Automatic annotation (TrEMBL):
It catalyses: ATP + protein L-histidine = ADP + protein N-phospho-L-histidine. The lineage of its organism: Bacteria, Pseudomonadati, Pseudomonadota, Alphaproteobacteria, Rhodobacterales. This is histidine kinase. Residues 250-461 form the Histidine kinase domain. Pfam families: HATPase_c (PF02518), HisKA (PF00512). The keyword Transferase applies. The chain crosses the membrane at residues 6-31, 160-179.
Length: 473
């Protein structure tokens, strides 16, 4: 049994506590033994005195020394009828060191006298006073040596300590057996499940089933079961995401090649004789260029993160116009959504232009599709402003609002979509891109009158940590 195990430490603590308890009992026991010892000497001395008084005086001198030796005292004094009488006497080897009146000693005084007698290894003569038994007088007084008393106390204490040690060892063994069966066996079961699950976390057969009878262990098993189910589910989702990422990377690779070819042909549209085609050609080229860039960044999917933003200063109103114009063209077939722009014409912002274009496109497209899904007309509005610490962009719509389930998983992939068949990646991508700028995308409101999102982009990157802390709260 090792001390660094629960059973070993439990056994050691049991022995220590039992011994401490016995030590606390030892002091009163020694005091009681000393008191009984002195009272027994008084009784022997009284019997010896009465025996001598009842004997013929001619025989008294012959019996006196034998009676004193059997009683273990030097002399005996009796007080009867208010007369103090020296009944038995013999030479005293030394002066009387102390007098103890057993009639007046209390509990604390008795324990104090016992400790003093045990610690003092000198053989001294003491006087002991007590009351005779059976009312055979008013007082009895004896003188005696302390060595036999101390030897008797030591022998009694050793027997008591040995008995306590045996009792503590037996108690520790019994408690250890009980702890092994009642506590350690359920704990070892939990540990074995944890080890088995750690080796194969994807296998649901290794998930523990709570069945412990001890409440605390059962709570631990329940918590472990919940954690294992969550981890297993997360691992399966992660595996599916990894497979999806590989598929997207392959598609992006082929799509990039196709778009590169389309970009070459789009460049030639600038030489068209049709003035409308010439005006539309640069926008088409820019759209294809952004698509190519998106495919190239998707090929880095294995890093599981967006590339860091390339910061530059540009006119936000122009970017907003490009996004609105592209979404207007995409929704012309239905024609039920109006776009309003409220961005100061001269407002400059420092950000990654392509990434911010994607952010606004995802938000505006979600708003447009939400309105189109109702079959009614509606409005999408883009507003912007700035303060000393940040730039902000507001995207609002008059759509039906987000359902509660979509609000709970708003920025989670494949979970926060409000549209049937949607993946929920639009908001996730937008939030990641803005987070890369040290900013934040938040839902201001979403009800029957529509939804409103706010984009915050700080001017100083030192405010990133503070903003993320605020968002977590």
């Amino acid at each position: 049994m090792r001390l660094n195990t629960i059973s070993g430490r439990f056994a050691a603590l049991t022995i220590i506590f039992v011994v401490l308890a016995e030590i606390c009992i030892l002091l009163p026991s020694l005091a009681s033994f000393r008191l009984d010892y002195l009272e027994s000497r008084l009784e022997r001395a009284q019997i010896a005195s009465l025996a001598l008084l009842a004997t013929d005086e001619s025989l008294a001198s012959d019996l006196e020394s034998e009676l004193l030796q059997n009683a273990g005292v030097f002399n005996v004094v009796l007080r009867r009828n208010d007369i103090r009488q020296l009944v038995l006497s013999s030479p005293i080897p030394g002066p009387v060191a102390a007098t103890y009146d057993l009639r007046e000693e209390g509990v604390l005084q008795t324990m104090d006298d016992a400790v003093r007698a045990l610690l003092d290894n000198r053989n001294q003569v003491i006087r002991v006073i007590g009351s005779p038994v059976n009312q055979a007088g008013q007082l009895i007084e004896i003188t005696m040596n302390t060595a036999p008393l101390r030897d008797g106390m030591i022998e009694f204490g050793m027997r008591l300590l040995l008995l306590s040690a045996a009792f503590s060892i037996m108690t520790a063994l019994l408690l250890n057996i009980a702890v092994q069966r009642l506590v350690l066996v359920p704990i070892r079961r939990v540990i074995s499940h944890m080890v088995a699950y750690a080796n194969e976390p994807e296998d649901p057969r290794h998930i523990i089933t709570p069945n412990a009878r001890i409440d605390e262990v059962r709570e631990a098993e329940t918590a472990l079961e919940s954690m294992q189910k969550t981890v297993t589910s997360s691992l399966k989702q992660k595996e599916r995401m990894a497979l999806l990422g590989q598929a997207v990377a392959k598609i992006s690779h082929d799509l990039r090649n196709i778009l590169t070819t389309a970009q070459i042909f789009a460049d030639r549209l600038e030489d068209s004789a049709d003035p409308k085609v010439r005006r539309a050609a640069p926008k088409l080229v820019n759209s294809i260029s952004r698509a190519v860039t998106l495919c190239e960044t998707t090929l880095a999917f294995g890093k599981a993160e967006e590339p860091p933003p390339t910061m530059s200063r540009f006119n936000l109103a122009e970017l907003g116009s490009d996004v609105v114009e592209a979404e207007t063209l995409a929704g012309e077939a239905i024609g039920k959504v109006d776009f309003l722009t409220d961005i100061p014409p001269s407002m400059m912002i420092r950000a990654d232009r392509d990434q911010l274009y994607r952010v606004l496109t995802n938000l505006i497209r979600n708003a447009r599709q939400a309105i189109e899904g109702t079959g009614d007309t509606g409005t999408v509005e883009i507003g912007a402003g700035e303060s000393d610490s940040e730039w902000w962009i507001r995207v609002g719509d008059t759509g039906p609002g987000l359902p509660e389930k979509a609000k709970e998983h708003l920025f989670k992939p494949f979970s926060g979509s409000a549209r049937k068949g949607g993946t929920g990646l639009g908001l996730t991508i937008a939030a990641d891109l803005v987070r890369g700028h040290g900013g934040l995308v938040e839902l201001i409101r979403s009800d029957a009158d529509g939804s409103e999102f706010m984009i915050h982009i700080p001017r100083d990157v030192s405010t990133v940590a503070q903003r993320q802390t605020t968002a977590a709260r």
